[in-house]
Amino acid sequence: MLDGHSLVVKPGPAKRQLEADKARQKPKDQTGDTVTQVSVQGVSGITEPPPPPKPVRLRRFHGSVKLDATRLGRDAGRITEEVVQHISGLVGAEVEVTLEISARIPEGAPDNVVRTVTENCNTLHFSSYGFEEE
User: Fold this and answer.
1) Which of 69, 87, 109, 126 could make an S-S bridge to 121, C-beta 3.0–4.6 Å?
2) What tens digit of pLDDT does each residue of 68-106 get?
3) What is the pTM assigned to this prediction?
4) How far apart, in whole angstroms, are the C-alpha atoms of residue 104 and residue 109?
5) How far apart are CA 31 and CA 41, in angstroms?
């Protein structure tokens, strides 16, 4: 049954047209993904817009938080469980956690504490550490 929107085509020319369309290289966007352009010619000649772009994927995270020195183990444990594990569980994720210590000692640090802390920082492979005058 034919209506006002039906077309009758010859198979040979239609097949050649389909093969020629396939042979054309599809355009690519900046990410290298193939772009599909869709166009529908209807009775009114309206062209359908291309599909919306893919959503942006967030690829980096950073955060810092001040910890209570008297509850360091507890707070660091919570941060590990509630933040670090979620990110490090992602395929290919590279997670780096840095602990920064800043202390003011109004009366000054005694020599034995300076020696002990300095030796411990060296043993624990701190990338930077040291005592200084204010």
Assistant:
1) 126
2) 999 999 999 999 999 999 999 999 999 999 999 999 999
3) 0.54
4) 9
5) 29
